[in-house]
Write a structure and sequence with these properties.
It is built from nine helices and twelve strands. It is an alpha/beta fold. It folds into two domains: 126 residues, Rossmann fold, CATH 3.40.50.2300; 106 residues, Orthogonal Bundle (Arc Repressor Mutant, subunit A). 32% of the residues are buried.
């Protein structure tokens, strides 16, 4: 078993005591240190006090709802968020992804699946933080991969963790069309999942990097396939993308 300080600290937020207890036991067996909260106000206090490495967040909470908790977390921190949603909450799930959640699990769920999702999200988050110094550029769009900073025409862009990872992947692979399934596997680490996740993140990226999101120049839709990144400026050599 991993040591808890190596595995990470997880904040589990759910108003169902039984769900919290099951998740605590499964996560602790995998080496994580676990904090629990049963409502949104307690979750925000615990988040500020304990600085978790990841938050497992139920959308349906008493008092301050899960979507508002996610929004407040995203105002100050890029910490990964895995949402718990009921089967019929598709609109809220999409909104949660728009607010910056990194992944979601639909209730009822397997605790083992959730632990696997937590591990996958944490690995990708940590890999991004420890990435070797790298910069990517396409015209006025510049990305410092190691520092996780992105600017457009000199102005800082506010990107969620997943939006940043997706944009980096696209800039590393200009001119190639990717299906939503391929993007889920490459950026999210999912071998299966809801393709609307990719659609939502692409729309958000277009809103942030395209002059006219309704007529995108960089992120093109390839009908029947998925998406392709078209450089604003033709690469002038290997250093144009590194």
């Amino acid at each position: 078993m991993k040591q808890q300080d190596e595995a990470g600290r997880i904040l589990v937020v759910d108003d169902d005591h039984a769900v919290r207890d099951v998740l605590r036991r499964y996560l602790e067996r995998s080496g994580y240190q676990v904090d629990l909260a049963g409502d949104g106000e307690t979750a925000l206090r615990s988040f500020t006090a304990a600085a978790p490495d990841l938050v497992v967040l139920d959308l349906m909470l008493p008092g301050i709802g899960g979507l508002e908790v996610c929004r407040r977390i995203r105002e100050d921190s890029p910490v990964p968020v895995v949402m718990l949603t009921a089967l019929g909450e598709e609109a809220d799930r999409v909104l949660g992804l728009e607010l910056g959640a990194d992944d979601y699990v639909v209730k009822p769920f397997s605790p083992r699946e959730l632990v696997l999702r937590v591990g996958s999200v944490l690995r990708r988050s940590r890999a991004a933080l420890t990435a070797a110094a790298e910069s990517l550029r396409d015209g006025g769009l510049q990305i410092d991969v190691g520092a996780r900073r992105c600017t457009l025409d000199g102005a800082a862009l506010s990107l969620t963790g997943r939006e940043f990872d997706l944009l980096v992947f696209l800039l590393r692979n200009p001119g190639r069309a990717f299906s939503r399934t391929e993007l889920l596997e490459a950026v999210w680490g999912w071998s299966f999942g809801d393709h609307s996740t990719v659609t939502v993140h692409m729309r958000r990226l277009r809103e942030k990097i395209e002059p006219d999101p309704a007529r995108p120049r960089r992120i093109s839709t390839v009908w029947g396939v998925g998406y392709r990144y078209d450089p604003a400026e033709p690469p002038t050599g290997a250093t144009a993308w590194t």
